[in-house]
Amino acid sequence: MNTKIEIRKFNQQGIDEFKQILLNRPVGMLSRLQEIQTDSTLTSPIDVAFEWDDAWSTRLELAKALWKAQSNSPRFEREADDDMVWNWISCRLFSALHDHDELAVTSAKAKSESIVRWIVEGSKLRQHRHLILGPYTAYKNNSSWGEEYSLSQLVQPILAPGEVVERISGKIELSHGEVALLTTWLYVDRTTMNIREGITKKGEPQQLSKYFNQIAKTVNYQSMTAQELLKLLPKHFDHWVQLAKVEWVR
User: Where are the domains positioned within the chain?
Assistant: First the structure.
């Protein structure tokens, strides 16, 4: 079912309330989250809307909806730099996206991880882990090149970003442009449009990140095309390189 969501943003009291609900997990948590979304003492409208479909499950579907809203509204483009907007959107979508495990969180560590997933605060180094802002940023950062460039960061389920997002979106040098396209070729199955199975084998995303770290001082890899980068990769990436050539390289 499609729902038109009128976006609002939290004030400081609103985000404090959202955070306390996530930390304390009170009885009636979902009802309380719904209450604070429209409370005029905790939020204010920004006169921007986007379409949400309850059937959506991937980061790509979410990112495209948010990007469409931004493209249609100069106001959203300005407001998109405000963390309070993204925190409100994540609060609004919590009831649609949460799973049983999310509601059952009890340990301090799990609650801390949940805060990072649902609330944007502090260091930008962790913003790729935010379930709403993360997909939007990946799509935005590659929008001038095309959707294919961001697929390795967006084909995953919204609630389960996984290893590729952590290693690629989490490192700005790998998250956009030709290097990002390379990661799509290496790690996305073009037939299923899912992350390939077995990415914990040789040539995994963490090894890719380490490899580019190693050559950064001697190779200007960011000036290279994805095809040139594919040829540059060492032998232990051969399995993924061959898949990339068969499925993606034209």
Answer: 1-132, 142-250
